[in-house]
Amino acid sequence: MASSAAAASIVSLLFLSSSLLLVSEAQKTSAPIVNGLSWTFYKQSCPKVESIIRNQLKKVFKKDIGQAAGLLRLHFHDCFVLGCEGSVLLDGSASGPGEQEAIPNLTLRKEAFEIIDDLRARVHKECGRVVSCSDIVAIAARDSVTLSGGPDYEVPLGRRDGLTFATQQGTLDNLVPPFADTTFLLDRLASKNLDKTDAVALSGGHTIGISHCSSFTDRLYPTQDPTMDKTFANNLKKSCPAADSPNTVFQDIRSPNVFDNKYYVDLMNRQGLFTSDQDLYTDKRTRDIVKSFAVDEKLFFEQFALSMIKMGQMSVLTGKQGEVRANCSVRNTDNKNYLASVVDDEVREEGWSAEFRK
Ligand code: HEM
Ligand SMILES: *[C@@H]1O[C@H](CO)[C@@H](O)[C@H](O)[C@H]1NC(C)=O
Ligand SMILES: CC(=O)N[C@H]1CO[C@H](CO)[C@@H](O)[C@@H]1O
């Protein structure tokens, strides 16, 4: 089974370069885009934003490819709680703890926040305060996928940054815990207009990155989950000798740092790390989708890109909503003055595009 999947992925690799072109062309036309976002949002105001981010991330990942996983997960957490509006980046304030302090966020990487701040500063230096933190997070997540070996795809842009962050309870109520079964996972995603294909595709994000023991040791202690492959379980027990061991393990044992379809091959071999992962193969509603991605990497890549574009547009702020933060960790203090400059910028942009049409 594993070898036929491997053969299938070799075949799909051969077609990868040509298919990627098709995918990104197709997405521009077929991926639905919400009102207020655009494929060419910064064409006039910051045409280099995407190349600045990609070039810097190439350097970051050359030193530590693990950071790609941290950035991908950051975008997911941002979007699921209050929508993709950068609230996950806000530091807790006097009014209460931020999304960062809520339990599921304790394992977001500190470096991911630092990388986003650094990218924002670089983009600001080039273009001024025009690109939102939430757009930077969305672009960085896409680049993390692409630079780890996954698909390249266009990201709709024009998100604005939120002014508030979720409570700890709000964060818990919107994310999915690793001990969730497929019914729980599908219900929660359905409430965000994501269907079962999106659920299986997006879970494929677990083809890169790490997990702390405490996120899955409920499957090892006190009783071992019978659906888990025995050898896999024994190895996890070595890495995590107690339920609360502080260690980490790779999520995809076959190719931990490569964005590929091996996550689904893991599931078919009962080597999924979380219940939420493994149950996608146990549950009849999602099993065939898992299989189809395990044997056809191209199919997975195309669907992953579509599902990410969908997730990346959840409850976005656009137009004059929210703000463009000057520091991703805090709200702007000069909101009033800044509104004037937003209006100026928009007038300027309209001027430019009128020019363009001549
Ligand atoms: C919807 C169900 C999901 C659940 C239950 C879930 C749960 C988790 C958990 C528990 C961790 C490990 C945290 C730790 O202990 O360090 C993790 C890591 C990760 N998740 Fe998810 N996740 C889900 C969806 C997603 C999605 C949609 C993506 C992106 C498309 C994603 C990307 C990642 C990545 C890349 C990591 C590794 C982070 C790192 O290495 O720092 N996850 N996830
Ligand atoms: C952004 O705000 C945080 C929190 O107030 C602060 O610690 C940090 O130095 C600021 N970063 C920049 C680049 O000003
Ligand atoms: C309370 C706590 O530890 N919060 C942390 C949540 O995660 C971010 C990013 O890693 C940290 O900066 C916070 O300190």
Question: Could you give a quick summary of the protein structure above?
Answer:
This protein has 358 residues and is mainly alpha-helical. Helices cover 53% and strands 2% of the residues. The structure holds protoporphyrin IX containing FE and 2-acetamido-2-deoxy-beta-D-glucopyranose (2 copies).
Task: Report on the architecture of this protein.
It comes from Xanthoceras sorbifolium. Keywords: Calcium, Disulfide bond, Heme, Hydrogen peroxide, Iron, Metal-binding, Oxidoreductase, Peroxidase, Secreted, Signal. Residues 1-26 form the signal peptide. By secondary structure, this protein is mostly helical. 53% of the residues lie in helices and 2% in strands. The chain has helices spanning 2-30, 49-63, 66-80, 110-127, 133-147, 168-174, 182-190, 196-203, 230-239, 262-268, 275-282, 284-295, 297-311, 335-357, and strands spanning 210-212, 248-250. It has a two-stranded antiparallel sheet. The structure holds protoporphyrin IX containing FE (HEM) and 2-acetamido-2-deoxy-beta-D-glucopyranose (2 copies). One 2-acetamido-2-deoxy-beta-D-glucopyranose binds at residues 100-101, 105-106, 108-110, 113.
